[in-house]
Design goal:
The protein has 196 residues and is an alpha+beta fold. Helices cover 24% and strands 25% of the residues. The protein folds into 2 domains: 4-124, N-terminal domain of MutM-like DNA repair proteins (Alpha-Beta Barrel); 138-195, Helicase, Ruva Protein, domain 3, CATH 1.10.8. It has 6 helices and 9 strands; from the N terminus they run H-E-E-E-E-E-E-E-E-E-H-H-H-H-H. The strands form 2 sheets. The chain has a 5-stranded mixed β-sheet. Strands 1-7-8-6 form a 4-stranded antiparallel β-sheet, covered by helices on one side. The chain is elongated and about 55 Å long. The two termini are 22 Å apart.
Length: 196
């Protein structure tokens, strides 16, 4: 499953497309549309102003309108040059840019999706702090775990508390810190929180 680091790597690989104009947007499977604050076609003719990431979401900003993509369990998002043929199954959406490139969303299991959002601040207001942000430190984690009976791994996977973590990095962090995943979060000592 693509988690924060993988989604950030994808974002960086696409940055050369900032300022390209979206010429055409093809959506082959309407089932991947999770929310539409506006018609997807309204993005056509608009320049891609910014490519960002929040948690596990890719954010394509076209001024006041945004396309958010979550890759789910098996999703891929990649760039195809103008002289390359599109191949493979499970291609659900393609963004055609005026630089000749195509940005492709592919997802065999369809657990991911596309959101067409106007107010991204509101949309992301429920996501927690990201583990790579400056404010995420041992004291922040201590506040999150205090008094909680839920398993520490379950807490780490709660996107409302910590945005961007998934099974892989939660397991790796817990293993490196020597903490059992099923341990109640509120029982961690200050030393264990620091290690984690």
């Amino acid at each position: 499953m693509p988690e924060l680091p993988e989604v950030e790597t994808i974002r960086r690989s696409l940055l050369s497309n900032v300022n390209a104009v979206l010429v055409k947007l093809e959506i082959f499977h309407p089932g991947v549309l999770r929310r539409q604050d506006f018609e997807p076609a309204e993005l056509c003719g608009q320049p891609l102003k910014k490519i960002a990431r929040r948690g596990k979401y890719l954010v394509f900003s076209f001024g006041e309108k945004h396309l958010l993509i979550h890759l789910g369990m098996s999703g891929r998002f990649y760039m195809v040059e103008k002289d390359q043929e599109l191949t493979g199954k499970h291609i659900h959406a393609v963004m055609h840019l005026d630089n000749g490139r195509r940005l492709v969303y592919q997802d065999a299991r369809r657990f991911g999706g596309l959101w067409f959002i106007k107010d991204i601040q509101d949309f992301f207001s429920c996501l927690g702090c990201e583990p790579l942000e400056d404010e995420f430190d041992a004291s922040h984690l201590a506040r999150l775990v205090k008094g909680r009976k839920v398993a520490i791994k379950t807490l780490l996977l709660n996107q409302n508390l910590i945005a961007g973590l998934g099974n892989i990095y939660a397991d790796e962090a817990l293993f490196a810190a020597g903490i059992l995943p099923q341990r109640p979060a509120g029982t961690l000592s200050d030393e264990e929180i620091e290690r984690l």
